[in-house]
Amino acid sequence: MIPGNTSEEPTLPRRHIPRTFIDIEHSAEDLIDANNHDVPSLPARSRIQRVLLTLRDTLQTAFNSFGICRLYPRRPSFEPNKSIPSSLLARSCPIIQGTGSEENVLPPPFPFPNMTVYRIMSWMNSGSHQKSEAEVQRLVKDVLQPDDFDIKHLEGFSVRRSLRELDRDEGGEKIIFPDDWIETDVTIDIPTKSKEEAPKTYTIPGFHYRPLVEVIRAAFADVQASAFHLFPFKRIWKDPLDDHQERIFDELYTSDAWLEAQDNIQKLPKEPNCSLERVIAGLMFFSDATHLANFGTAKAWPLYLYFGNLTKYVRSSPHSGACHLVGFLPSLPDSVKDTLSKLSRISKTGMASLHTHCRRELFHACWSILLDEEFVHVYRHGIVLKCPDGVLRRVFPRIFTYSADYPEKALIAAIKDMGSCACPRCLTPKSKFSELGILKDMRSRMNNLRVYATTKVIQAREFIYKYGNTVDGSKVEHTLGEGSWVPTMNQFVNKLGSLGLDPFRMLVVDFMHECELGTWKALFTHLIRVLYALPGGSQLVATLDSRFRQVPTFGNGTIRKFANNTSEMKRLAARDFEDILQCSIAVFEGLFPAGHDSPMQSLLYRFAQWHALAKLRIHSDSTVTFLEQTFNQLSQLLRKFRRVTCAAFETKELPREKAARQRRLAQQPESNATESSGAKTKKFNLGTYKFHAMGDYVSTIRLFGTVDSFTTQMGELAHRALKGFYPLTSKLDSPAQLAKHERRRRVLRRIAEAGDMSPPDTHSPADTSPQTSSGQHHHIATNQSSPINIFAFLREHDGDPAVKNFIPKLKDHVLFRLRNLDVTYCDHTFTAEEHNTVIIPNNTIYSVHTMQVYYTTYDFRREYDTINPRTRADVMVLSGELIPNHPYWYARVLGIYHLETWLTNSNGYQPTKQRLEVLWVRWLAPLRNHRSGMKYARLPKVAFVDESDSDAFGFLDPSQVIRGAHLIPAFASGRGISSLRHGKSFARPDGELDDWEEHYVGIFVDRDMFMRYTHLGVGHPAMLRRITRDCFGSVVPAAEEVSDGNSTEGFDDDEEEEEEEEEEEEEEEEEEEEEEVIDYLLNDEELEEDDDIYDDLSF
User: Fold this and answer.
1) What is the rounded distance in angstroms from the CA atom of residue 481 to the CA atom of residue 449?
2) Strands 888-903, 914-926: pairing kind
3) What is the mean pLDDT of residues 226-231?
4) Model's pTM, two decimal places?
5) Residue 194's pLDDT is what?
């Protein structure tokens, strides 16, 4: 029992034996012939006055072991996973071509004289540019050890000559690919503010790009095209709990947007003399400016292209070769200021507006070059390409998504950055952003979607270029009207708008910048301000930092050590803010006054819940509904937080915010010298675009699939290759040299593929995960390097409650295991005679440092947790109670052992020696009367079982472990000795003398863990999901059943908003502090973003 917490004492059954856990076994998809599923479609529209009746030959596969099937609206003739038998594929009268590549690429050692030089140059142009153990090992394995390596081949070897052979050498044989880099100049018109004088043309040199049509050709000729999904389908889930069926949302090629596009291209008029199948090449763009080095001003603005036909699990890997670098967008050179300064009658403000206008013109002029006549023609009529199965098909490129941060979205949409209508997708006024989640806000989003004001923009440009009006003049502003439009022609509309492209719908949400580095960072920052505003605020912040440092790590970098003062937020990347959110509930508990602490806990819980749901890698209809309800709850709590908690405290700038503001003032030559040097008042600003964007996640997921399919994290990872190339350049004309290095890698990759060799730094494009086999539950090493004599071990820990009854419990466990008893024998007591039948040779067991536990995630991936008694010792198992109140039990692993043992018998037969793996654990139990779960917005809370209980310590079968668990100390409960006497113990690592009295279960530590506390995990066993549902109920309750631990009655959704001027000031200050590229895009100043904003895709 825990002193002072008599209402929340741990409860535990007499004998602690978990229920047996069996994960889902993977099996191949069994398919059914859908010959009887022919469904006639509606008559297709045609410009010809006739009725076309199309019969759709659908195909539905059989439900696999997870209850998943595919529903193809049209029977496919090609399937990359080979999971559909050829007898079920469509017969489309294919035209078969030869299998040779259209490019004249010879196998290795082309273009070098021998394999030795080829291997050396391949090693040089792949991998890392830094010397490391891995690179040296790769040098030995890939270059020196192969049989075709000959030292004599290196006589007269020259790296420079070999590079010339690899590049376009005018003096030798050229290696030319249609998708090679092109360098061109970009010309824009600068208005002169004069009717008589024509606009001045200004040329920006050095736009490097690859023709998009040729990139598409090359992609379909690449080996990765064999993994392309050419025919979209719906993924259907039959829930084994009640056999109801739901739609699954995951990949782009299973999304509504792709299915709609596929229907649309089928309705297009037929091309003359063409009866080929029509398929889609799904284009997904990403662009973002980045620094190329930690020091200096070298920067690049790369444009990447991904094909949505390829699974996101391949696209997310930076070494898969799925990322196509197709351009380097140029920035406006400083010399343009000389041209602008020569214009007559232009003020300083007018020059700044004109400079911004020129930047917008340059950006869209670049896209006008990329969207050339050939691409527009192919977008309209398609392009005949040979697909991986050797069949010719007519391929229609379609742009689905463009991932970028907010400043670049404003450029793409051709709207003002943070204008009065700041959203690039809808026309909701910025003054209404703070009405987040209110019904009229959601209706406004749907009823006021952006439609490009082409006529207004053309008329405004006439006023500027023909009649001499200023770009920011009243006449131009009045002409453009509402919508924050700018007088720059949007080339996506101009070139592709008539062909069905919606340039605003493609600007998908940006989870990394808008949530983790946006809304959550803003909320966390203001919570720190509130702590400083409280009495003894500095001490409270110091306590917060101390608590963060004591949060245990988890997983392979999932939760990292909080080494620095978290409140200072120095050089934190998106992954760091994610870790802070996942651990913040326990850390913030008890730091706020009594009237505000409970609402804070609810707010943090709902934010973490929304974060977990929004970032799921696979959604069902139920989880999307759950996300929508969570957003409504979170938005209500955010508004209440601003109205109640924020209004109760006078919050000031944080020390780092004050220092940053003073640095900015010092850099301004005409700064206001009378401005106070003290901290300024800072209020929580809910009226920003990033909070507004939270309302678009549900519709985006339903339309394009899950956010990890188009996250900007992919582009951030792609930056690594550029930063790896940069040290190999001369640092002059960076885009040209980076393009050259990219081409070298691409050439070597294609040569390797021509020779059936594995290209360096590439992974398999298959859909399946390269993780361990599905049949293995765990791994414990079999080495015997750490033998432990049981009696010597007990003498060493004599008097320690942690090893009390160690031998009897070990023999009980051995008998239980070898006799194959189940949980119904939990109250069985073995006799001394039965104990004597257990034989352990030499009374020796063997200790192992770590154990890997493999599991199937909610999205069908195979992952593992590493259990280490010193660092990551906590595990979760299924509850052994017949009617559990909580689905899991928790234990802290004190030792990992394996032993050889057998049972003697009286029948005279020779017993069989068996090897057993066991865990010595310390049990934790849920606290009685602690209400937790989604309904109450509280984490589960557990405490160690009292040492007086006979089951406080015991042995556990490793096969019963589901996963590692992340137990965060309940810091507000403090440390104590209520469960174990004071002093050193085998149960306390690092010589600690006491324990944390209570722990919170970190259910938000990753998305798979979160889904294990719902019944909606598609990849989780039905038994586990049923137990979870019985314990917690449905996680998609009616709105009136949801409680956040504090009443919200009387809340007025139509609350009064803050003054617009104050909101604008707050937004401007927030944008200055963000680690984004606003300065690069609009002011051409040095970037201050984190160079490695996201180290990995730990989805």
Assistant:
1) 16
2) antiparallel
3) 94
4) 0.88
5) 80
Residue 206: which residues within 8 A CB-CB, separation 6 or more? 183, 185, 330, 733, 735, 736
Residue 1077: the pLDDT is 34
CA distances from 538 to 128, 533, 654, 921 (A): 44, 9, 11, 40
Residue for token pair 């009286």? 906
Give DSSP secondary structure letters for 545-609.
HHHHHTSPPBTTTTB----S-GGG-TT--HHHHHHHHHHHHHHHTTSS-HHHHHHHHHHHHHHHH
Please check whether residue 738 is in contact with residue 725, taking contact to mean a CB–CB distance below 8 angstroms: yes
Residue tagged 């109801």 (tokens): 244
- Give the angle 629-630-633 at the CA atoms, nearest 5°: 90
* Residue 568, amino acid: E
Kindly report the backbone phi and psi dihedral angles of residue 922, in degrees, each rounded to the nearest multiple of 5, phi listed first. -115, 120
Read off the DSSP letter of residue 1099.
-
* 268 three-class SS: coil
Residue 268 contacts residue 281 (beta carbons within 8 Å): no
Which residues contact residue 671 at a Cβ distance below 8 angstroms, ignoring those fewer than 6 apart?
Answer: 665
Distance CA 628, CA 437 (A): 10
Distances (CA, A) of 481 to 175, 352, 453, 455: 53, 21, 9, 11
What CA–CA distances, in Å, run from 561 to 549, 583, 607, 973? Answer: 7, 11, 22, 22
Distance in angstroms (rounded) separating the CA atoms of residues 1000 and 605: 12
Residue pointed to by tokens 């601003």:
642
CA dist list (Å): 22 to 503, 770, 776, 854, 1027: 48, 22, 11, 12, 13
For 524, what's the count of Cα atoms within 13 Å in the CB-facing half-sphere?
Answer: 26
> In this model, does residue 125 exceed pLDDT 90?
no
Give the Cβ contact number of residue 4 at 10 Å.
Answer: 12
Structure tokens at 54: 């199309």
**What is the Cα–Cα distance from 1078 to 1070, expressed in whole angstroms?**
12
- 824 pLDDT band, cuts 50/70/90, is low
